[in-house]
Every structure is written in C-alpha cells, then in structure tokens.
Amino acid sequence: MSATIVFGFFALANGERVKTFRAGSSTATYHCVYETTIQCTSGMLFPAVLRVYSPFNDVLLADNSVAFVSVKIAVPANVPHDAVLLEGIYVVPVPGDVNTEDYERHIPDFPHPMIVGLGSVTSQAKTLCDGTSKAFDVVSTDYVRDARMASTVCCVFDTARPRWSKTPVPNQNTVVFYVGRFADAMTLGGLQVELESIALNVGVVDAKSSAATPSSSSSKKCKFMAFVPKEGDHAATHPETGRAEQVASSSSNVSATNDHCELASSTTATHHSPRSVSRSMTPTDDSIVKGVVAVPAGRARGKGRRP
C-alpha cells in the first residue's frame, strides 16, 4: 500500500513524440516526453523527464512552456546524477505566448512542487546537524514507465517550529501519509522533502476511533440540517429553536431529521385520521399549535395537543 503524487507548475522544453509498444501487443501508444526540472525551496534543481500520454495528432508544447501538472514519480537511487522520472496524469498548459516578456507574470507564484506520499518508513529517525530537524526515509512504489518502480525520499521536519515541537517521529516499518515540498538534496544523495503535514501509523485501527457511533435514533441537536428540503414542502418553525423546518405536504414525505424532538402521545395522534391530517397540513389550519404541524401517528414531532 503506497503511492506518491507530485503536482505544481513545471517549465517544459525539448518536447518529443515517442511511440512505444507494450510487451505482447502490436498496438502503438504515443507519448509526449519533455525535459524539465524540480525546483527546491533551497534553490537546488533536480533534472527530470516528464512523459504524458498523447493522442496520435497531438501537438508538442513550445519550449519553455509552463504547465500545471499532476504526476507519479520515480526517484532513482543516485539522484541528482540521474533524472527523476515523472509519469503524467494531467498536464494543463498555461495559456499565452511563451515568447512575450509578461508570459510568466500571470502565473501563480508557486515554483516549488508539492509532493503527497503514502509509504513505509525504512529508517530510524535521526537528528540533523542543526540540532532541531528530524529526518527519516520513506519508500513507496508507483507504476512509472510501464513498470513498478520504488522511490525513497527523506522527510524532514523542524522541531524548533511551534507546529512541530510536539510531533513524535514515526517508528521504523510503519506506514505514514505525508504532504510536503521538495527542499534540497541529501549529502549522500536523494531528495529531501520539507513536511507540511503527516499522519502516523496509517492503517492501524485506533481503539478509540473504532468505538460504535451513535445510531440515527439517538438524541441529537437540530442545529444543522442533513437533508435539502424537497420542492413542495411547507415551512414550519421549530418550537424550541425558532428555526424554519421543512415538513412534507404528504404524510409519506414528512421529514425525520429532528429525532430529538419528543413524540406526541399516541392518544393525541390516534384522533387524526390520515385524511384529516393531509387536509390539516397547512400553516393556517387549527392543527398548528405553537408552531407545530400535525403529522401521522408514529411520525409526530413537537409537543402537540388535541385541537
């Protein structure tokens, strides 16, 4: 159980159309392949190659075109000497003429791509040379270039920042879900990811969270409505909250969202036949007592009284 998705704005160049054949198939598949870079927050640049599916008559993007892309990623072990492989999911070019000076002026200031990953922690957390940053390796696999490829990134968070001061480091061989930005290159090679969010022990059942939730019949407040009123329903005011409720014009469509309201006594409900109820369900009828609309037996709400 693992996956890694990268999204952000990338500058593309040296586009090339490539025709490939899958093993055991004579059907050709066309891709557009572009050279690009992954820009890190430290200023470091990692070379990358983006491949995206392309129809037969597709047109290559001009050099230095900027596109918002969503890709799967494969990080080679000896990065940055080898290019990072990007497998396109969506590639949306920024409109405009790349040769004009103001082409990038209308592009959002978002030069550092985001990475979202789900993977296994393969190392014990260690403290970096600054004395406050914690680092650990996370490995995940994705289907890139028609094969399952493993990637390892080094996730880092700074405990000197208030938001990370009480965050525990993950244990080795546990699964984590993380969100971050590409930050730098590691000393011994590899990509460093500056974390923005992390979820620990993904897939482990929490005893507290697995407790049974209250059933729909338990009492609850009516402050929020769970259903959109249907057309033709009549509005009535809740006797306790003073808010408008929607009561169906027929007995079969009466709303049951306010389960906490007390049911009218069966004695009161039995004095209203279905025919008399359907006639009385208008806001001007005497069956409305203190803002309560009479409803069929077993579905009545509010503290109604015999008219």
Write the layout of secondary structure elements.
Elements: E1 3-21, E2 28-39, E3 45-53, E4 65-74, E5 84-93, E6 114-121, E7 126-127, E8 133-144, E9 147-158, E10 175-185, E11 191-199, E12 234-237, E13 244-247, H1 266-270, H2 274-280
Please characterize this protein's 3D structure.
The protein is mostly beta strands and 307 residues long. It is 4% helix and 40% strand. The protein contains two helices and 13 strands. It has helices at residues 266-270, 274-280, and strands spanning 3-21, 28-39, 45-53, 65-74, 84-93, 114-121, 126-127, 133-144, 147-158, 175-185, 191-199, 234-237, 244-247. Strands 1, 2, 3, 4, 5, 6, 7, 8, 9, 10 and 11 form an eleven-stranded mixed sheet that branches. It is globular, with a radius of gyration of 30 Å. It starts with a strand and ends in a 27-residue tail after the last helix. Mean pLDDT is 77; it is low at 209-218, 244-295 and 298-305.
Let me know the average pLDDT.
Answer: 77
Low-confidence stretches: 209-218, 244-295, 298-305
User: Percent range for helical residues?
Assistant: under 10%
* Count of individual helical segments: 2
Characterize the overall form: globular
Percent range for β-strand residues = 35-45%
Distance between the termini: 64 Å
Order of helices and strands: EEEEEEEEEEEEEHH
Largest sheet properties? 11 strands, mixed
Total strands: the figure is 13
